[in-house]
Amino acid sequence: MAYGSPERLADVPAYYADIRGGRPVAPENLEDLVERYRRLGIEDASPLNAITEAARAALEAELGVPVFSGMKHWTPRIADAAEAALAGGADVLVGLVLAPHYSVLSIKGYRDQLDGALAGRAELRFVESWHAEPGFVELLAERVRGSALVREGAHVVFSAHSLPERILALGDPYKVQLLETAGLVAAAAGIGENWSFSFQSESPTGEPWLGPDILDHLEALAAGGIERVLVCPVGFVSDHLEIRWDIDVEAREKAAELGLELERIEMPNADPAFVAVLATIVRRALAVPSVV
Ligand code: FEC
What we know:
Layout: H1 12-20, H2 27-39, H3 47-63, H4 78-87, E1 92-95, H5 107-118, E2 123-126, H6 134-145, H7 148-151, E3 155-161, H8 166-169, H9 174-189, E4 195-200, H10 214-223, E5 228-233, H11 241-244, H12 246-258, E6 261-264, H13 272-287
Parallel strand pairs: 1-2, 3-4, 3-5, 5-6
Helix pairs in contact: 3-13, 4-5, 6-9, 6-13, 10-12
The site of ligand FEC has 19 residues, from helix 1 and helix 11.
């Protein structure tokens, strides 16, 4: 399962309405979103949907069992994937989200959609989180280690999607899991203490979100004498709007203003090494139901 992305500019209002789940959309926020997709050239290609399909096909080939993709906020919907699996005779399903960290405001929504669609018609083995999966940690560490900027002493900023601060009062594991991934990757990459964590992609919903936001964080780093930064997004796995706009456009522009050199790691996307990690997680869920 993945977040989903509009295929065309004309789809953006319906897509945004789906994300808002019936709550009103401010016209200026919709215009701003359409503009971001326009500037990324979405009419030519919808990167997230295409990457998700490539990862699905590669995982199916690797596992030798049918793999279906379902999107949280676009088509094919998670319910469509569930129906397709059931129509193919599945009696056990593994539910895996292409987002490593659990939150009630994130992964639970995917699970609810899948549970609701299956309605008890098959056994669901749902992977709640895979943020410390050794293969995933190593894949990111390798990309950090491989960065020429890091070899020149760049500071590594791990990042993930922000969420409303109220999740902390709910005892949500999201932030703890994110920091755990960042710490594991930093240790495996051998960068010592030369790293920090910040959130990105906050939405204008009118309530406080988890911080620091990456743009403010870059300012603080520059003020502290840092000159080079490698961004390592750990909460996402694909090139999509939150990477290609929020990091590649906004964070880069901010870094340029501050005189900071900024690069980011390549996202895992449908890289065979990443597909192998996903296959390990699925095989484990199929073999040992109690561990998921
Ligand atoms: O490339 C694309 O077209 C889709 C990129 C995309 C990804 C993504 C991942 C996450 N989100 C998470 C949480 C929230 C919360 C809200 C929210 C709003 C948006 C909007 C767009 C959007 N998100 Fe997203 N998210 C992506 C895109 N997200 C577009 C609406 C416009 C905007 O605010 O910029 C606020 C909802 C509300 O208004 O109430 C909360 C989390 C993730 C990472 C986990 C995952 O991938 O599921 C968490 C990719």
